[in-house]
């Protein structure tokens, strides 16, 4: 039990923080714990969690994906353009859109793994290119209609539970198995810890890197289609809010932004924390600007904790303490 707690300390802290934040929010907003509001919270958290699934894999591998906003937006708009309000085309449109997201992820991964382009530059360039392509494709006016089946998957219910909660649960199960039981998970952690050491150890670093970006493209595309069903239309800029949200969810879940550690179960807690926090802000009469400050602070703190400078500072402090104790002795 002690070993389990030590190994999953940060994940457990994320869930503990979620519970505390939930109780605090309920104090300021008495109706927050109602069944309907909790369902809404889960639905909104699911969008963050699905987008952050791919980001989790990329970050554990030592990278970052800044193309998520317009992969998501592109998927939403292409689906709306091809389907309109009809369900029948979804049979081929959904696989097509998911394949497109995977292809974009492959391009990102290939640029990073094969051509040595830094992840920030590669994915940011992809994001800007996609934004331009969609603006040209739509003329700035995307289709307003959404298929009813997508709406059902996004806001429908099976009994008391949202349909999207089941989708999120299934994805979480797959992600957990990949990270905990599959050889891919071991390769991914090794890659994030040290790409050089991993390569000398026989880990297929290039393939592993590309797969992480493919997963990120897939989950961003899936989230884009589902988010269209929730909002009732595809609109330009709908993915922008999910860039730092996805990174912050991974960080809150206990992953190191520098790679090599973390788990999707922690990211699930991070997605719930951010969604609950969004509900707390209106109760405290705070704007969304406060939420952006939280995102920035979370990312800054987690990067600082994992950085070599911070680690070196800790080592120096411990060394100084040891010298003082030796001199006093």
Task: Provide a compact summary of the structure.
The chain has 329 residues and is mainly alpha-helical. The chain has helices at residues 2-7, 9-28, 35-60, 68-83, 90-113, 119-138, 148-155, 163-180, 183-193, 195-200, 205-231, 242-252, 264-283, 288-306, 308-328; strands spanning 157-158, 161-162.
Q: What is the fold's blueprint, element by element?
A:
Layout: H1 2-7, H2 9-28, H3 35-60, H4 68-83, H5 90-113, H6 119-138, H7 148-155, E1 157-158, E2 161-162, H8 163-180, H9 183-193, H10 195-200, H11 205-231, H12 242-252, H13 264-283, H14 288-306, H15 308-328
Antiparallel strand pairs: 1-2
Helix pairs in contact: 2-13, 3-8, 3-11, 3-12, 3-13, 4-5, 4-6, 4-11, 5-6, 5-11, 7-11, 8-9, 9-11, 12-13, 12-14
Describe this structure in words.
The protein is mainly α and 329 residues long. It is built from 15 helices and 2 strands. It has helices at residues 2-7, 9-28, 35-60, 68-83, 90-113, 119-138, 148-155, 163-180, 183-193, 195-200, 205-231, 242-252, 264-283, 288-306, 308-328; strands spanning 157-158, 161-162. Strands 1-2 form a two-stranded antiparallel ribbon. Helix 4 (68-83) runs parallel beside helix 6. It is globular, with a radius of gyration of 21 Å.
């Amino acid at each position: 039990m002690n070993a389990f707690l030590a190994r999953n300390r940060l994940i457990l802290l994320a869930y503990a923080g979620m519970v505390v934040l939930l109780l605090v929010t309920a104090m300021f907003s008495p109706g927050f714990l109602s069944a309907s509001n909790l369902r809404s919270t889960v639905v909104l958290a699911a969008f963050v969690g699905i987008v952050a699934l791919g980001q989790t894999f990329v970050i554990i591998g030592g990278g970052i994906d800044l193309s998520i906003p317009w992969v998501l937006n592109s998927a939403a708009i292409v689906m709306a353009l091809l389907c309109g309000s009809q369900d029948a085309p979804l049979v081929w449109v959904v696989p097509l859109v998911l394949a497109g997201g995977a292809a974009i992820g492959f391009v990102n991964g290939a640029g990073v793994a094969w051509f040595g382009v830094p992840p920030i530059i590669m994915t940011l360039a992809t994001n800007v290119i996609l934004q331009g392509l969609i603006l040209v494709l739509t003329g700035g006016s995307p289709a307003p209609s959404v298929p009813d089946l997508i709406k059902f998957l996004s806001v429908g219910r099976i009994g008391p539970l949202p349909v999207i909660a089941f989708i999120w649960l299934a994805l979480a199960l797959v992600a957990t198995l990949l990270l905990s039981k599959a050889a891919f998970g071991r390769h991914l952690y090794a890659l994030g810890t040290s790409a050089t050491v991993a390569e000398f150890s026989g880990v297929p670093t290039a393939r592993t890197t590309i797969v992480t970006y493919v997963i990120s493209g897939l989950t961003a595309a899936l989230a884009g289609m589902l988010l269209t069903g929730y909002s009732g239309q595809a609109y330009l800029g709908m993915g922008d809010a999910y860039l730092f949200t996805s990174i912050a969810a991974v960080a809150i879940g206990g992953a190191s932004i520098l790679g090599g550690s973390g788990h999707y179960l922690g990211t699930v807690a991070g997605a719930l924390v951010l969604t609950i926090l969004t509900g707390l802000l209106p109760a405290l009469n705070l704007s969304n600007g406060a939420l952006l400050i939280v995102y920035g602070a979370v990312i800054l703190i987690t990067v600082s904790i994992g950085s070599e400078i911070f680690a070196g500072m800790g080592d120096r402090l411990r060394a100084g303490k040891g010298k003082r104790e030796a001199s006093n002795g």
